[in-house]
Amino acid sequence: MKLSALFHKTPKATIKDGQQTARITVGEKGYEPATIELTANTPIKLVFNRTNDSMCLARVQGEHPAFDVELPLNQDVVVTLDGLTPGTYQYHCGMNMFYGQLVVK
Ligand SMILES: [Cu+2]
Fold it and tell me: Which of 20, 44, 47, 45 is nearest to 33 (CA)?
C-alpha cells in the first residue's frame, strides 16, 4: 500500500446556507473525485465539468436519485438534487463505463 493511501480521505461537499456543493471533474479517468461524501437531508448541488472530449462521458446519469444531463465540454453543469437519506448512491456515464458515487452520512 502506498503511504498516501493511508492518509487519503474522501472529499466532502462544502456546505453553505443550508446547501451543499461538490465539484466533479469529468476527465479521461472518469469522475474526479470518484467518491464524494455528503451530509444527509441537505439539498445538493453537483457541479460537473467535462474536460475530456470522449462522447462516452458526454452524459451523466443516475437512477436514484434520477438525473440525466448532457455535459458540454469545459462548461459547468449544475445538477440540483433534494437531500438524500444516508447511503451510497451511484451515477455513471451514458454508456455505463465510468462510475462515481455519493456517500451520504
Ligand atoms: Cu461511457
Answer: 47
